[in-house]
Structures are given as C-alpha cells and as structure tokens.
Task: inverse folding
C-alpha cells in the first residue's frame, strides 16, 4: 500500500530512549521558537525548561509513517491521552494548507531540520536531521503534501501494515 499513515505511541518513562530523543529535538526547536503547552488542548504541561512533561506518567504522541514504514514526522507535543493526540491529528488533516514550514540548523552546522506550525504554534517536527537546508525543506513539503492522503491507524501500536479498517482523518 502506498498510503502514509499516523500511528500513536505511549511513553511510560521519562528515561526511555524514545523520550530522550524527542526531548533533545524539541529542546533545540524551543531554542528557536519558544512555546508553552496549551492545557485546553490536552497537551501535557512542560517543565520550566520546556522540554519534559512536568509530571511523570503516561504521555501519548503521534508519528507519521511513509508507505515504507519510515517515520517522516512526529508530534511537537506530548498529549495527556491517545484521544487528545488523535483529535490533534484530525485537526492537522483538515488544514494541511494552513501549515507553515520552518527550517532550522541543528547543533552541528552540517545538520538541518524542519518543523511545521499552525497559527504560529509548532505542531509537527521532522524525525531526523538532513545534510542541507534544501533537503530539509523538500522533506517538509513532501510531508505536508502527504497529509492529503494520510490515514489514521486505530490503536496505540505500530502495525506491520495498514489494516483494511484504517480510518481517514478527513471522514466523519
């Protein structure tokens, strides 16, 4: 199948490798674009440093995977529940043309990344660093374009393949 899809994951520990990777990247973005969480949206509050959830516990996040199962983007925020994360994905699927792409240099001059904002608020980040700013920008554009055909996979585990019952975020 050639359809990009969203999967949802849950973090149970601030010490997991996944959490540490997410924190490092988000901290770098926040050095360029400071933002605080919006509790009304079910986004977990952040610590004073703005990177980790203030309270330990379960946190959900989403990832956008290409048809080859490679992660191409992930959520900027951690969410208080799977449901909150899914609602946010549905909002992004309804407004891909409203997303703005921002590129940034990594900690090393040879690394570049991107994040997307909606109404000036970061909502989605790349999942890896790129060798040049143009490669990062091209990847971001392709990711935003992929939102037009992406589906939401129900559940919180990464499937081996998209199940027949996958639901598009644009259907009601």
Result:
């Amino acid at each position: 199948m050639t359809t990009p899809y969203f999967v949802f994951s849950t973090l149970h520990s601030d010490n997991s490798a996944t959490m540490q990777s997410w924190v490092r990247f988000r901290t770098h973005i926040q050095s360029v674009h400071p933002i605080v969480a919006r509790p009304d949206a079910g986004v977990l509050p952040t610590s004073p440093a703005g990177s980790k959830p203030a309270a330990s516990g379960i946190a959900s996040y989403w990832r956008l995977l290409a048809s080859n199962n490679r992660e191409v983007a992930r959520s900027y925020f951690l969410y208080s529940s799977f449901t909150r994360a899914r609602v946010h994905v549905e909002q992004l699927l309804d407004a891909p043309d409203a997303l703005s792409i921002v590129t940034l240099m990594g900690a090393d001059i040879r690394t570049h990344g991107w994040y997307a904002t909606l109404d000036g608020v970061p909502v989605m980040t790349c999942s890896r660093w790129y060798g040049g700013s143009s490669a990062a920008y091209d990847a971001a554009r392709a990711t935003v374009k992929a939102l037009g055909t992406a589906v939401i996979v129900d559940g919180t585990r990464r499937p081996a393949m998209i199940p027949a019952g996958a639901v598009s975020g644009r259907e009601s």
Q: What stands out?
A: The chain has three helices and eight strands. Residues 60 and 115 are 19 Å apart (CA to CA).
